[in-house]
Amino acid sequence: DETERRHTEQQLRFQAELLQSISDAVVATDLTMKIVSWNRAAERVYGYEASEVIGRDLREVVKQASSNEARAIDPADTASNWRPEQVHYRKDGTMLQILSSISLMRDVYDQPTGLVIVNHDITALKHTESELERRLEQLALLRHIDAELGHTLDIEKVLNFSLRAAVALAGADSGFIALIDERGDPQIEVYGKAVNSVTARNI
């Protein structure tokens, strides 16, 4: 009747609004992987408007780093399928780190009709983890430097060790320390890989 129809319409509107408000990219496809739904978060994550992708093959829109990641989904698999971290690419080619969940949709007769894919963008999290790991490595190196320098007064050992540590902390390939006199002229001893024609003592 009319009341039931309105209730159903309200439920459908609510579900549609909920889908659009989710922060994860939610994509629905049919069994041939043609996109039938693409929420606002998917637009933000991948850079495609819904109007650009509806009806297209998901595998052509969401580029993945490995063909193994884009393997076909088995419709007989009824359980949600969390996959390992994947590398996807935005429309502009930017690389994304993605954690993905794939579930099979079924109709009222329990027949498979398509897939719902929820992709959680963890790119910022992975960058933060990498930066934290780098900072921890730097802290460990600084502690090692402090311990080593406390055991010697040999200026050559101090300079060579300090240079190796500075190169490691900076993430550089090489470096040098030039000793200069009070006039600003370089002395003979230069530690590391020098520039121009200055003689260097390699480490």
How would you describe this protein?
There is one protein chain. By secondary structure, the protein is of the alpha+beta class. Strands 1, 2, 3, 4, 5, 6 and 7 form a seven-stranded antiparallel sheet that branches. A hairpin with a 4-residue loop joins strand 1 and strand 2. Helix 5 packs antiparallel against helix 6. The chain is elongated.
Sequence-ordered SSE layout with sheet pairings:
Layout: H1 2-21, E1 25-30, E2 35-38, H2 40-46, H3 50-53, H4 58-61, E3 63-64, E4 81-82, E5 86-89, E6 95-106, E7 112-121, H5 123-149, H6 155-170, E8 176-180, E9 186-192
Antiparallel strand pairs: 1-2, 1-7, 3-5, 4-6, 5-6, 6-7, 8-9
Helix pairs in contact: 5-6
User: How would you state the average pLDDT, rounded?
Assistant: 75
Low-confidence stretches: 194-203
Shape: elongated
Oligomer: single chain
Percent range of helical residues: 25-40%
Structural class: alpha+beta
* C-alpha Rg (nearest Å): 29 Å
Number of strands: 9
Order of helices and strands: HEEHHHEEEEEHHEE
**Major sheet characteristics:** 7 strands, antiparallel
In percent terms, what proportion of residues is strand? 25-35%
Summarize the structure.
This protein is an alpha+beta fold and 203 residues long.
Task: Provide key terms for this protein.
203 residues, alpha+beta, seven-stranded antiparallel beta sheet, two-stranded antiparallel ribbon, 6 helices, 38% helix, elongated
